[in-house]
Amino acid sequence: MEEAARQGVQGICFDALELLPAEQRPDKAMLLGWLGQVVCLERLYKGHRKSIDALSFFYQQNGIKMMLLKGYGMSLYWPKPNHRPVGDMDVYLGSCWQEADRLVSERLGIRIDDGHEHHTCFTFQGVSVENHYDFVNTKVNDSSRELEALFKRLATFDKPLTMEKSEIFLPSPSLNAIFLIRHLGQHFAGAEATLRQLLDWGFFMQHEHENVDWELVVSTLKKVGIYRFFQQINAICVDYLGFAESSFPQIEREADLERRIIEDILSPEFGKEKPKGNTIQVICFKTRRFFANRWKRELVYREGIWSQLWYGSIAHLQRFKTIKD
């Protein structure tokens, strides 16, 4: 149960217990504890959804459209949306992001944190909000800048979703396909990814596969150097998670690499925890992790490892307090 929670899949795993014969299910005490976690997930999801609606309504009253990235939008593809864990609220407001932050600060009295690379942060109704002026961090490599230009072209605010009080917007399937695999890759290469992120991808593909411009997506993934990773994630979804192969483009499997990726997600090869000590300790830890994860970075980024290290270090020096993030 603890491992399911760490991987962000305790809700969907609980749903699967009903498929097991009674004699193979956990004992009553564990089931009750697990049920309590799932009830908590459902309560948090309900509150998170209300906060999304409230923030969108505030923006809408001021003529600003809110696009929601990842998170709640992904949950809508799950069999039981409220059994997907909630986290931050990631929003994209196009050219209105500065005006939106000003309104949040002046009218709601909320402090805006602008010390991050490609978004500002604030807390709204207890939820951490990331207001993205860029989809990805453009300070660290050329491929990110190329992707950012494409993301902004594809962010057309033409996929509305009606909430109780407001209307939010979701990314187009083609934008989401590129953004999600890059985001998953960043987590995987930088530290670690989770089964919940794999399920987000699998369920998204299950529902949106036919609506994606695959010529655009595949050519883009090849250009920015993440195509092999994309192929093995698709293979994992089919071979390990049970998704239908028809939900994915033709898969080019590399069995050893596929196995290494899923094993690293389940139990990271570099599994040490970041120290809570001084800055020097954190820098030493991040440097060791960076080189231990070199094989992962080569799967996700087109740029060479030394280029990644150099420009990543410069970005941290420019916003030094992010070094401990």
Radius of gyration: 20 Å
Structural class: alpha+beta
Q: What fraction, in percent, of the residue positions are helical?
A: 55-70%
Quaternary form: single chain
Q: Could you please say which CATH topology of the domain at 1-171 applies here?
A: Beta Polymerase, domain 2
**CATH architecture descriptor name of the domain at 1-171:** 2-Layer Sandwich
Number of strands: 6
Arithmetic mean of pLDDT? 91
Distinct helical segment count: 14
Give the CA-CA distance, first to last residue.
28 Å
Which series of helices and strands comes N to C?
HHHEHEHEEHEEHHHHHHHH
Strand order of the largest sheet: 1-2-4-3
Largest sheet: 4 strands, mixed
The CATH class designation of the domain at 1-171 is Alpha Beta
β content, as a range? Answer: 5-15%
Uncertain regions spanning at least 5 consecutive residues:
none
Overall shape: globular
